Amino acid sequence: MSHTGIATANNGGLANTGYMLIRKFTQVQQAAAPRTPLDVATDALAKAVRSEWEKEAGLRRLLEPAPLPARWQVTERKVAGRIDGAIAEEGRARFAPLPGLAAVTRDVLRRGGALPELHAVYGGLASGRLLLVGDPAAGKTSAAVLLLREALKYRAEAASDARARIPVPVMLTPFGWDPNQEDVTDWVAGRLSREYTLFRSRGGVARARELLEQGRIALFLDGLDEVGGKQRAAMLSALEEASFRVVVVSRARALAGRRQRLSGAAALEIQPVRAQDASAYLMNPLPDPAPSGWQELNRRLLDEPGSAISETLTSPLAIGLLRDIYADSNGRPVDELLDTARFPSTRSLQDHFLAQLVTAAYTPRPRRPRPRYSPETAERTLRYLATQVTHAQDDRELRWWHIPTWTDRRPRMILVGAIVGLLYGVAALFTLWRTSGPVWACLAASLCALLGGFLAARRHIELNDQQPLPSAGWRDIFPPGAIALGTFTWLFSGTAGWLVFQLPGNDPMPAWFTYLSTLPLGYSATMVSSRGYKLVVGTYLGYGSGPQNNELRDQLSQRPVTETRAVSPRDVWRHHIGLRLVLGLLTGVAVALFSGSFIAYEYDLRDGVLVGAVCGLWACLYAGPAGNLGVATALSALQLSISEGTPVRLMSFLEDARRRNLLRAAGPAYQFRHDWLRESLTSSARSEG
Questions:
Q1: Max avg pLDDT among 152-156, 261-265, 457-461
Q2: What is the spatial order of strands in the sheet that 72-74 belongs to?
């Protein structure tokens, strides 16, 4: 919701000189040089990035109406090293200034400025390392988006020979990066291959890496403050070694620790909005003369610097909300803000604006994509979420895997038990009909259905207890130690089984068959010795999955993914609804293979298939959907939709709210972006209750 732009400052001589030189270059007749494949790829990337961020800037209301001016200064907070390392006054510059720009000096940084000066710093900084910091809702990301667009525009206007030396800026979030396992160049190249179609062909990752190594791409990294402290420190350390320009966007307090600093970076802080800029932004769209209420508000803004109105309207968030709520022809009368008895302080005005934040975020507006959810649905859902977070958790985190604990477990227990029992009973009836006769088949199938449904329901209800996150990525389930133990178990049991059947008096068994039939034992050993042990609990393969092997699991497992890699809530959700669900289903396949292979060998293939199918189907349902947190969360979302009126696809709503800057990621969990917003929503929920 930040409506941040950058206005041209009076001290823009350095940037204006650069622009004049660029225009001069474009007028000079030059001999046409052949374009290399890297030139073609770089220009194609620039086109794709420009198209992407033109749309994003429109969604953020950075294009129309005219952007809200904001300015920057070198921060006084201790979030970076000395300026000497950034400008290389006494050393060799790591990066030469971009064509048409001059090297940044200490005086240039001290003067501060707006967008032209910010771009000049970005393109002329000797270290190539820039930090954009500020308080929450200061407009950091919006400033970065405008800087990115300015850099693309500058490159497009450059002469063809200079353009190859001007990098294409790409903006990414750090989620999915493990700096201990993957250097920054490999990670960015991999992300580019997933984000942009021109790198998805064969050799696309290698091409992206080549562009990075040659400095043809600049990285804008947003959301560094949304990952854990240890991960953040490792990322900053890795960014120091990058061979390309880097711009990091973060809350200032996230970089306050000694180990949270980017060496050689210039840290620029987004400044509070000036009263004159806020006045122009608010009054320009209004008719002349403006309504009396707007005139009085503008007078207080400009002439009463200590008033609640002038103190509040220094934040891009507050200014944008005021315009969204009151400047619309169908909006509310702005005169109510002039009531000093109702709004005596900055906090009272901030609370009032925050109370309107959700409605403003989800109100349809011209030339903007229609929101997926109505303002009423969004506010009702966020009120419920804020209440649950406030009451249930001391750290104010919204852990999606705890959502099942918010609902009555009995409907889900009945639903899961009925589905599993029905499927298992039908399978047993089909299997036993010909061999046992109708009466015994029906009786046995009924018993199978009741027992299978009961056990599956009980397994599902265990997910209703608050618990730590079982795993957040495939490395939690497949650490090297667990894989090695599983491989050894498989080879040992397969070899031992083959040797036993070679003894006198036994029918020889082919080696391929013994290794195939004992493969589930290797799978079981891998699961029970890793953080995937709950996937096999309660099945034939679950021996050793109890607490007696916790010490072994701790020895074989590596640090959790959440501590070594930046993961977003959506990443972890996809891990559970994807990999863990597939592995649960695969547990049923392993049970079927283990149960049916020897029956098939001793008797016949048909008996083996039937026995394997009956055993495997129940294990598949028990370990798969019945024991999956992602499935439990989806079913709980359905319950909440019925009882509370929240969206059925609650995870999609959470991600959409994050995109609208109402929520933020905190590793695998969500948080309300502003504590005041959470408190405001909780208070309104209490008053309605």
A1: 152-156
A2: 72-74, 266-270, 129-134, 246-251, 217-222, 168-172
Assess whether pLDDT exceeds 80 at residue 181: yes
Alpha carbon dihedral 429, 433, 436, 441, in 10-degree steps, equals: 30
- Residue reference for tokens 């803000």: 337
Residue 467 contacts residue 412 (beta carbons within 8 Å): no
DSSP states along 375-397: HHHHHHHHHHHHHHHHHH-TT--
- Sorted by sequence, the CB contacts under 8 Å of residue 266 that are 6+ apart come out as 74, 80, 83, 86, 87, 104, 109, 121, 125, 127, 129, 130, 131
Q: Is 457 exposed, middle or buried (0-12, 13-18, 19+ CB in 10 A)?
A: buried
pTM: 0.72
Integer distance in angstroms from the first to the last C-alpha of the chain? Answer: 29
CA pair distance 580, 531, nearest whole angstrom: 11
Place of tokens 């008033």: 307
CB contact set of 488 (below 8 Å; sequence gap of 6+): 525
Q: Could you give the CA distance from residue 130 to residue 148 in angstroms, rounded to a whole number? A: 13
Angle at 675 between CA 75 and CA 678, to 5 degrees: 150
Residue pLDDT, tens place only, 205-245:
999 999 999 999 999 999 888 887 788 888 998 998 899 99
Residue 409: C-alpha distances to residues 389, 402, 465, 505, 576 (Å): 19, 13, 10, 55, 20
Find out whether 121 and 268 touch, Cβ atoms under 8 Å.
yes
CB 144 within 8 A of CB 62: no
Q: What share of the chain is helix, strand, coil (3-state, %, to 5)?
A: 60, 5, 30
AA identity, residue 552: L
Tell me how far CA of residue 602 lies from CA of 288, 359, 508, in angstroms.
Answer: 94, 69, 12
In whole angstroms, give the CA distance from residue 64 to residue 673: 25
Spatial separation of the C-alpha atoms in residues 153 and 22, rounded to whole Å: 11
Tell me which DSSP letter residue 542 carries: -
Token representation of residue 531:
């953080």
The string of DSSP letters for 292-303 reads HHHHHHHHHHHH
pLDDT of residue 65: 64
Does residue 331 have a pLDDT over 70? no
Average pLDDT of span 57-79: 77
Rg (CA), the chain: 31
Most confident of 24-28, 177-181, 366-370, 377-381: 377-381
Q: What distance in Å separates the CA atoms of residue 551 and residue 218, rounded to the nearest whole number?
A: 45
Of 309-313, 433-437, 675-679, the least confident: 433-437
pLDDT score, position 498: 87
What's the count of helices (H) and strands (E) in the chain, helices before strands?
29, 8
Q: Calculate ∠ Cα 629-633-636, nearest 5°.
A: 135
| Average confidence score pLDDT of the chain | 85
Query: What tokens appear for 369 in the block?
Result: 């994509």
How confident is the model over 117-151, as pLDDT tens digits? Answer: 999 999 999 999 999 998 887 888 888 998 999 99
Which of 18-32, 263-277, 494-508, 597-611 comes out lowest in average pLDDT? 18-32
416: its two tokens: 């899961």
Best CA proximity match to 240, nearest among 168, 302, 184: 184
Percent pLDDT > 70 in the chain is 90
What pLDDT is recorded for position 258?
66
Closest to 517 in 3D by CA, of 618, 598, 620: 598
Helix (H, G, I), strand (E, B) or coil at 170: strand
